[in-house]
Write a structure and sequence with these properties.
By secondary structure, this protein is α+β, with helices and mostly antiparallel strands. It has helices at about 70-90, 95-110, 120-140, 160-170, 185-200, 235-245, 300-320, 325-330, 370-380, 405-415, 445-455, 460-470, 470-480, 490, and strands at about 10-15, 25-30, 35-40, 45-50, 170-175, 180, 265, 275-280, 335, 350-355, 365-370, 420, 435.
Amino acid sequence: MPTTTTRTKILDRVDLPIGNSNNAYVFRNGQRGGKWWLHFNNPETKQRHRFVLKHPNGRYPLPNLDGLEEAKELGLIRFIDLKTRADRGEAVNVLTIGEMVDRFLEREKRRISRTPHEGITDGRFRLIRNQTKHFLNFCTRKGGCGSAKQVHLFRRTYLDTYQQWRQETTNAVDKAGRVLPRPTTLNGEFSTIRRMFREVALAQGFITRDQLPEIPTAKVPKDQSFRRSAFSGEEWIQLEKTARLYWTEGLTRLSKEGKPLGFHKITKGPNKGKDSNRPVTRNSLFGVNKGKGTRQSDRAKQQQDHRLMLYLAMRISMESGIRIGSLRKMRWSHISANKTLSAEDQKVWCLIEVPPENTKTGRWYEVSAPVVRHLERLRRITRPQKESDLLFTNQKTEAPLSARIWGDGLKEMLVESGLATWSDDDSNNCRKIDVKSGKTLTWYSFRHTWITFALERGVPIATVCNNCDTSIQYVQEHYFHYDAKRATDALSTGRKRALKGGLSTDWMKDPYVKDEA
């Protein structure tokens, strides 16, 4: 008869008929939902091992006495396999590639949290799950090692061909003609694979540190650039002017065919007789009268308010370099005056606090930005009731502006300014554009543009990094390019007296003249 013991939550222990009953028995694990397990003593190493019992298709025996006979049968099969390994001197405590992936995903799923910086989001978990799926597909492809491969037998250089396989199976390029997936995507997958081996296989004792596979780094083709997309000076002026004069006013400067509308003569004021910079047509923003002159309804007024709010968000982002995620979570209580400035300067510059829960890095930091005028206009639109209110809220529902409003608004501004056109597969449910320059322009592009412009103005790189919460190494790799020819003024800053020149410079090589062969 089965016996019950309270030792280590072992329930319904039953010895297997193998001679020495202490070598193997099955039991229900009270700490794991009552599932049936096998206890095995390895006579060669004097070590004890325990394994959950389940069928090859993943089905478990019933977690009660009704599943005893099924558990005994599975236990005997597993015992014979383990005893054979032990007699041959092979490892008993083994883990397969597929089991490692399952255990890793179970751990990551338990980390999902809605509290910022205390775990991972649902979206991050989906990304990790897709990354492990690519890894499993690589292992189970024709000629691969298979998901049943034991991790301690995994060849260390097995992943050397992973990048080539991913690019061949994807067989696609982006709008700029670059091969997909991009190196940043592949390096993310390599990072997840590295974590799997370290946090599961190594941490749980299935492999040693010397058996860890070599994880490569994605190689970037020499003729491809993966720098962040930013606006040029001309593009920014064109976007800002068009958004301010037309898009925020509910007007358009283009016909349905994409051609500029006719302009009219100004009839009043000091500019009488000159061409107006406003089109003749005032358009309805939506509905059956879209594109036709009409009086605005309440809904149209709310939509026009949203347009002006997005325009101001664009201006704040361009003047501060703040991340779009932090900007969307900004509250009025995060804004304060900079008392170190004069009264006049305080009308232009203010301090913006970015708390840890609103940042990508989980660090608190503060931004100094000349955005007081934009914030005042925003307060007149949103009319906040308390300081804890968000800056950007839906004027109808008072909820935060949705991702659709943020995304569609920027695309409309880009199209209206002539920097992009609507894609052939564009629809109201999923707006898509084709940027004429081939860049990938998003709300993050304003942050990248601010960093680029600040460095070009000569703002010290340390000041730029601290004002936008990023590292000097990252800025050097993606934005800053040192030019010794133009660094003299900066290197001379702070010197008490000018250095004396030499007698002659004729002996110096002209760097702009190439040597003749």
